[in-house]
What we know:
Elements: E1 2-3, E2 6-7, H1 15-35, H2 40-51, H3 63-82, H4 86-91, H5 93-117, H6 123-134, H7 141-146, H8 153-181, H9 186-217, H10 221-242, H11 246-257, H12 266-289, H13 300-327, H14 332-343, H15 347-358, H16 370-409, E3 419-422, H17 429-439, E4 448-455, H18 463-479, E5 484-491, H19 494-505, E6 509-513, H20 526-535, E7 539-544, E8 554-558, H21 569-583, E9 586-592, H22 593-606, E10 612-617, H23 623-626, E11 635-640, H24 656-663, E12 668-673
Parallel strand pairs: 3-4, 3-6, 4-5, 6-7, 8-9, 8-11, 9-10, 11-12
Antiparallel strand pairs: 1-2, 7-12
Helix pairs in contact: 1-2, 2-12, 2-16, 3-11, 3-12, 5-6, 5-8, 5-13, 6-8, 6-15, 8-14, 8-15, 9-10, 9-11, 10-11, 12-18, 13-14, 13-16, 14-16, 15-16, 17-18, 19-20, 21-22
Amino acid sequence: xxxxxxxxxxxxxxxxxxxxxxxxxxxxxxxxxxxxxxxxxxxxxxxxxxxxxxxxxxxxxxxxxxxxxxxxxxxxxxxxxxxxxxxxxxxxxxxxxxxxxxxxxxxxxxxxxxxxxxxxxxxxxxxxxxxxxxxxxxxxxxxxxxxxxxxxxxxxxxxxxxxxxxxxxxxxxxxxxxxxxxxxxxxxxxxxxxxxxxxxxxxxxxxxxxxxxxxxxxxxxxxxxxxxxxxxxxxxxxxxxxxxxxxxxxxxxxxxxxxxxxxxxxxxxxxxxxxxxxxxxxxxxxxxxxxxxxxxxxxxxxxxxxxxxxxxxxxxxxxxxxxxxxxxxxxxxxxxxxxxxxxxxxxxxxxxxxxxxxxxxxxxxxxxxxxxxxxxxxxxxxxxxxxxxxxxxxxxxxxxxxxxxxxxxxxxxxxxxxxxxxxxxxxxxxxxxxxxxxxxxxxxxxxxxxxxxxxxxxxxxxxxxxxxxxxxxxxxxxxxxxxxxxxxxxxxxxxxxxxxxxxxxxxxxxxxxxxxxxxxxxxxxxxxxxxxxxxxxxxxxxxxxxxxxxxxxxxxxxxxxxxxxxxxxxxxxxxxxxxxxxxxxxxxxxxxxxxxxxxxxxxxxxxxxxxxxxxxxxxxxxxxxxxxxxxxxxxxxxxxxxxxxxxxxxxxxxxxxxxxxxxxxxxxxxxxxxxxxxxxxxxxxxxxxxxx
Length: 692
């Protein structure tokens, strides 16, 4: 068609217009369907149906959709492993295994029976068709991620079950395809097991080491992002070479990189953003483009096959979710979440039907005929719609319950958490901001204040330099989708500026870098720390990180006796639990018996899934003996050091700088001064400065 000398023809093949059409769909599908209360994932699939060759034939499913679609599929599996709560996964691994076996064998049994009795297929064809019902794709996982429910027990069980059932389904596919290509002998299976095992060990043990080395040496955002993608596709490619589907490799890479990419971090935000904005929508649109809706109205055997496949796939997944709910006494909404996540058929299902369709049996017929191929795309459409609707409903219910529970548990007068980061040294800004991101309340989009104090005397950084430091801190926060408020002020000295900012902005905690000694007579912590502690009762964290916080593998906490009686006890325990949960490491508390009980009670109430142990010592153990621990280079030492006059204060704290200099000069270090009971600003003979 030619209009105004412009040649229009369908399907569109010009790369510019193809990409524009896809971007328009990605932009407007959520906007239109949100008004109809329909999950936008369905909109992507339906848009693919509309513009594909079986619809208006606007676009053809060319190599770009195959490429970006494969990336999107890998991304879904990778993010599922990356966002999983590993402690919850370990705690629920048996439940995940049970659900995985149920969601494999129930569809297999129903599938073989219905295919042979209702559709008249052979046993081998029925087994392959049943394996398609058993596998599923976490196509609705972006909904869970959007609601922030990736750590829900039902989500963890669903993801664990997905790994089990997809693996078993792909084994069935490999077995049947091997039968017909003449390679399914004993040596074939031995080599398959050996290759998959070897590559799995490489991913589990080598990839995390590579990640830690890379993240410690390179902090460039683009390089870190590309490095992670390299590992994802290297893992997928290696598993593919071994004879299994690459989605398993992508999922496994997500699991092993989980501790290195904190949930609230710039890198995680970039990975989620790129995947949800481009690659995953491309995959969903590509799935829609292979669906031929005309099979619904074609009638005859094709319609019968499509109906049987869709009903069996949906019913078997519901039965597996129902059985899991009853076995573990879960709520009905947890069952809905498990069913919603496990019902969608796409990735392994497509692989199985395409392989089966290409296999020609001895009688000249295809192992899976054209009716099964058409029925598969219909099943994909229906199950994806059911999956997204059920997951959306369950997620909304979880979010509402969580909101109402939090509003009931938290008193109305509880102050919001705000963390102050004084920035003066450009070399420590990254580590301090990332540390604040790890310990902050991730339910708040703000809560971090970056401060630069300019000395009235003219010494120190200029205002222009201070502004650059503040902008750097704000950029790091915005990369993690966290707003950082920038404050630049003049004051008599740095400590005075920090204290005044704490009061003016309602700061609940301060994170500062460890002072660098200027001379032999200079103190270990510096005059700033001492002045700050005298001027505020709020929690103060002094940190010296020799490596990025996300590469830390363990945290050892030295807790003095009676620390459980301090006002800020719960706050610093909460911060350490958040940090350990974000980077997936183990907490080891070294303290007396009574304080260990208080810590155990606090952790169980704050974050029951946190992995921790308590190393108990006698109540009369000297502080220097409490510090007799060995810290590996990849671990973090945390010392809880209260202020003079507090309940847990020990005069032996005065020897802490010497102990740290002697035994932990090159260790990652954090000294926490817990929040104290608020004192009135009264000047006394013993403290003439008071809180001024």
